[in-house]
Specification:
heterodimer, A: 47% strand, B: 6-stranded mixed beta sheet, 11 strands, globular
Chain lengths: 118, 111
């Protein structure tokens, strides 16, 4: 887990504020995935990105949520005008290539950002 | 509806007992992974299985991929308190780009 860095570990926002979650993938990894996890539940896919491209955003809510993975710097998951229902743990994972094809390339997860909306 | 179902949802056993947890789907997967997640941390990969009928062993853990590549099982022999955690299965479908996760089995091994 140590290779994928997420920050902050904990984030508290009031309703209506913006939340920015950052993820630095493992060195050499160019594929980033964001997942959301509610207490006592599994991981829900949100978005899959490669450098400067969104590959699959089928799990992203249509409004208020956006993600980017720029050429330089970390991947950012941005939630605008947060609501209490956005409270969850958000996990980022990285891999060295598309795991759908490169089945020997596992997902490496960070330790998550726990967002609390008050 | 869940693409991947896992059972049981919760399991509490005594140290030294054996157990099996299951991951089932009506869909075929090109590969399937098992992860373990401990509180406050991200999931950690245990194994990837790719061939129908494949069996992989990792110390006291035995993983099996169903012949039809729709299901998998994880068997733990002589469970230890250190095995406590959330066990997640994740599958990649042939045409998919992503791994979808099951809801997990929460295992508690009591000393």
């Amino acid at each position: 887990n140590a290779g994928v860095m997420q920050n902050p570990r904990h984030l508290v926002r009031r309703r209506g504020q913006e939340a920015r979650l950052r993820c630095s993938p493992m060195k050499g990894h160019s594929h980033v995935y964001w997942y959301r996890q509610l207490p006592e539940e599994g991981l829900k896919f949100m978005v899959y990105l490669q450098k400067e491209n969104i590959i699959d955003e089928s799990g992203m809510p249509k409004e208020r949520f956006s993600a980017e993975f720029p050429k330089e710097g970390p991947s950012i998951l941005r939630i605008q005008q947060v609501v209490r229902g956005d409270s969850a743990a958000y996990f980022c994972a990285s891999s060295s290539k598309n795991v759908g094809q490169g089945i020997s390339s596992p997902l490496h997860f960070g330790n998550g950002t726990r967002l609390t909306v008050t | 509806t869940q693409l991947l179902e896992q059972s049981p949802q919760f399991l509490s056993i005594q140290e030294g007992e054996n157990l099996t947890v299951y991951c089932n789907s009506s869909s075929v997967f090109s590969s399937l992974q098992w992860y373990r997640q401990e509180p406050g941390e991200g999931p950690v990969l245990l194994v990837t299985v790719v061939t129908g009928g494949e069996v992989k062993k990792l110390k006291r853990l035995t993983f099996q991929f169903g012949d039809a590549r729709k299901d998998s099982s994880l068997h733990i022999t002589a469970a230890q308190p250190g095995d406590t955690g959330l066990y997640l299965c994740a599958g990649a479908r042939n045409y998919g780009q992503n791994f979808v996760f099951g809801p997990g089995t929460r295992l508690s091994v009591l000393p």
